[in-house]
Write the structure tokens for this entry.
Amino acid sequence: MGLMQYRANFLLQFGVGLSSAVGVLLPMVFVWQTNPVIGGFTLREAMLVSAFFLLLGGILGTVVEPNLGATVDAVRTGTFDHILLKPVDAQLLCSVRQVDPSRLWEVVTGVLVGGWALAGLPPPTPAQILAATLMFGSGMAAMYGLWVVVISLSFWFVRVDNLRFLLGAVVDTGRWPVTIYRGWLRTTVTVLVPVALVTSYPAMALLGRLELQAALGAVAVGLGALLVSRGVWRAALRHYSSASS
Amino acid sequence: MNRVLDRAFTFFRVALAEMVAYRAEMLIWVLSATMPLVMLAIWDAAVADGPVRGWGQVEVTRYFAVNLVVRHLTAAWVIWELNHLIRTGGLSTWLLRPIHPGWWSITETLAAWPMRLVILAPLVLGLILWRPELIFWPELANLFAFPLSVLLALWLMWSVQASFALLAFWIDQSMGFFSAWVALWGLLSGYLIPNALLPLSLGEAARWSPFYATLGAPVELLLGEAPIATTLLLQLAWSMLSFLLLGVLWRRGLRRYGASGA
């Protein structure tokens, strides 16, 4: 909670969180203003997608990104040894060591926007809510797996900062409903960097538009990403030559 | 004069060599900034049912193809480097050199052009193959005004970024203010939304903003949708204004600079 000590900075971050939420929502309003239905989504339905996108950004920024940065630094400077010496699983420790509470603001806006969007839509059934939760969970698992793979890469290539930027750029495409994308762009955001699983799929589940096949595929991608990332992580650990040995 | 040119040339050669040395990083940087392609997909779907305010799929493709190129020709990254230098004290080394550190940064920014163009070429070619109708012949005057407009946009972008970076002399975490600028810039510069497709009065008002001067102006100039003289003058005015501001911030900031050895 180191960030809470610097109150002025915390307030500033708060403002930054607000401006990033505005930066997600306003373009959407302006685009939909020219056409009421784009890719089969009305503005309110698309807002549901961006609500999940804000949630994703908030969670990534609060929990995943700070830990990724800390781990990459630890590998570069050699302090990663301290982590390995502890009796807890290193991957778990690397995933929960640091929290950046300033990005929680995005989670709050995400919930507010999602509530507003749902208020004007037919209420989802319990089964649809369950499906949406499952989709969001699988998607987050897939994103987490991807981040673990990027961390693991830093054991071989010390500088992975740029890779994080590229990943961030692809994640950014998840703020728009996936039905808009065609061809290779769609493949990228559903399979390669499965950001659509976190943003569009839960929204489609709540709207009752998700097909069973796609839902099962999403769960498979989530589980697969967890398994693969665990494998890559262990291979990376074997490759790690510590600072002291 | 000859000596100045000589030095400038040497600077440029070194900067260019550096860009080539870090070509893999450059590739990733360029690919990270392909937002115009995503926006092209969005707008392509938005106008799929019929043109909006005269913008059909061809116009949208043309706009974002030019947008992509201009975005990369006007890309500066001085804020990250300068901010870092001030906060770590690395600026001291630069201040000791007999030449103003700004010159190096400007050279470096320009030296990225050849590399960026090489990486962008296949992307633009792909767009042309996908939708050959996007090819167009600009008026001769617009064609000549375009490079000038791009240079002015780059100058403005560079001095705005440098100004934000100099806030680090006073505030510890100055990058937050820049995020707010970026959010506004995305909306009003024409980067995500062509100004013609913004709500009408907002789009008109945004055409006078510094945001538009950094991106929308050169794009619309090449497309022949902006008046040449007015647009260039507006860009010149904003560039000089921000450059003056940068100068003031630089002089005041240096007096406050307290790193070891300074």
User: Anything to note?
Assistant: Chain A is about 75% helix and 0% strand. Residues 2-239 of chain A form one domain.
